[in-house]
Design goal:
Shape: globular
Oligomer: single chain
Structural class: alpha/beta
Bound molecules: ligand SAJ
Strand order of the largest sheet: 3-2-1-4-7-8-9-10
């Protein structure tokens, strides 16, 4: 099948890179977003997202004459839906007393409804938004069929998950293998033909529900494995072991690859998608459910580490070498303490603050009585309710009692403790992401506490 014109619904982290990539590969693309500010920003030649290379790509797309943005759809050969599927803010599901989060499918529903008046015989519709299994056949298909046309007969319908890693989206979009699941084999073939315009990785055809499940399985696997690493960090502290050393040694085994512990799992994918399985089958998903809860609880563990750092300082110790020291850290140690938190993004070297575990740590510290100032170099004007952002690094650290590293941004990993001495009164540092070298920091005169390490 040949596609001359494509409508991309949703111009966010996935929609905009995908739309521009199609445009620079010769397809005429209309990018549609319900947010007029985003459309205006793009029409003025700016972008609203930080992603390496995206600014250049979008301007090439615009210069090619193939890309335009609008709040209104038009007829096209293909429609691609890339809108968010977050979870519901105020409603939880429950199974045997265990609460779980529910997918909020309103954006997918209204994007699909918006296509109906423009749908024509021979069109292709692709859903890319990560969605609970069976969304394509049970939600999207019936809505599109309100047009009077039949999916798989009059028009093609596919699910194709995006699998790109924020920070490397442009490269992975082209190079990663692409799974295209059709409601019929012909639909999958049509999806294949669309993506082959730019995908260099393999394009594999399957059915729509398998493609949906593949995507959630990928992110669930990562979530469960991170939960395991986070649990190892807790165990290592209990047993007086440095988890980072232990992980690097375990990973010498040819079939073991343990991920990194940290302040928790954030972002709009890995902390959300596993709930789609739990929602679909709560009685079949105890492991997935518990892993989610382990990761959601990890910010509390970081807060305990901070409390411990202050109480150890009071006791005149270096890193607590016995588990009891940890338990002795009282809830009062945070009151009145000034903490400079470095990083607010959900992970290293991105500017995305959504579902950020760093923000959760900051909120918990504040709840505990600490005054926290945050410096996020990739989003200096970021605005999260109740969180005090510094205007620069020096202001954040100047009057701090402790410096807490929450995100492993490259520029934070490069910080020289020696150079900090004259800029801050803090002599306690807490590293939740294993970016700083203990010897180096202690040589400079700091007490460095690392998550997952109580080794003296
Ligand atoms: N994290 C850890 N330890 C690790 C790795 C990550 O604590 O060892 C944390 C990160 O700091 C972050 C969270 O997990 O808070 C998620 O980060 P990530 O880099 O694992 O993943 P995302 O959410 O940026 O992107 C994922 C990717 N999925 C997989 O790697 C299986 C990406 O390929 C997907 O396209 C994306 O989700 C998505 O859109 O679903």
């Amino acid at each position: 099948m040949n596609f001359r014109k494509l409508c991309v619904l949703g111009l966010g982290y996935i929609g905009l890179p995908t739309a521009s990539t199609f445009a620079v590969n010769g397809i005429q693309v209309l990018g549609v977003d319900i947010n007029p500010d985003i459309v205006e920003t793009l029409q003025n030649g700016n972008i609203h997202i930080h992603e390496p290379g995206l600014r250049d790509l979008v301007s090439h797309a615009i210069q090619s004459g193939n890309f335009s943005a609008s709040t209104q759809l038009e007829e096209a050969d293909a429609f691609l839906i890339a809108v968010p599927t977050p979870f519901k803010e105020h409603k939880l599901g429950e199974h045997n007393g265990q609460k779980y989060k529910l997918a909020d499918m309103r954006a997918v529903t209204s994007a699909t409804e918006a296509i109906v008046p423009f749908l024509r015989k021979g069109n292709l519709v692709v859903l890319e938004s990560t969605s609970p299994p069976r969304t394509t056949v049970d939600l999207v298909k019936p809505i599109l069929e309100r047009s009077g046309l039949k999916a798989g007969v009059d028009f093609h319908l596919c699910y194709s998950p995006e699998r790109v890693l924020p920070g490397q989206i442009l490269r992975e979009l082209v190079e990663n293998a692409r799974v295209v699941g059709g409601v019929t084999p012909e639909s999958a073939r049509a999806g294949h033909d669309l993506y082959k315009n730019f995908v260099k990785g393999k394009i594999i055809e399957t059915d729509a529900t398998t493609a949906e499940m593949v995507k959630i399985m990928e992110n669930t696997t990562r979530d469960v494995n991170i939960a395991l690493a986070n649990e190892f960090s807790r165990l290592a502290e209990r047993f007086g072991v440095d988890v980072w050393e232990a992980i690097s040694l375990a990973n010498l085994h040819p079939r073991i690859h343990i991920l990194n512990p940290g302040p928790g799992v954030g972002g709009h994918c890995i902390s959300v998608d596993p709930w789609f399985f739990v929602e679909g089958a709560p009685e079949l998903t105890p492991l997935i459910y518990n892993a989610r809860n382990v990761n959601d609880a990890q910010p509390h563990f970081v807060v305990e580490k901070v409390k411990q750092a202050f109480s150890v300082q009071t006791a005149g110790l270096r890193e607590a070498s016995h588990p009891d020291d940890r338990q002795n850290a009282t809830g009062n140690t945070l009151i009145g303490k000034r903490i400079a938190a470095l990083g607010l993004a959900y992970k290293a070297d991105v500017d995305d603050l959504r579902e950020s575990p760093a923000a959760e740590v900051v909120r918990l510290l504040q709840k505990g009585g600490a005054q926290v100032i945050v410096w996020e170099p990739l989003k200096p004007n970021g605005n999260l309710e109740g969180i005090h952002m510094a205007s620069n690094f020096d202001t954040a650290i100047r009057k701090a009692d402790a410096i807490l590293l929450l995100v492993r941004h490259t520029e934070f990993a490069k910080i020289s403790p020696q150079a900090l001495l004259s800029k801050t009164k803090a002599r306690i540092a807490i590293d939740a992401v294993n970016a700083w070298n203990k010897n180096e920091w202690e040589k400079a005169g700091f007490l460095l506490h690392r998550l997952g390490a109580n080794k003296s």
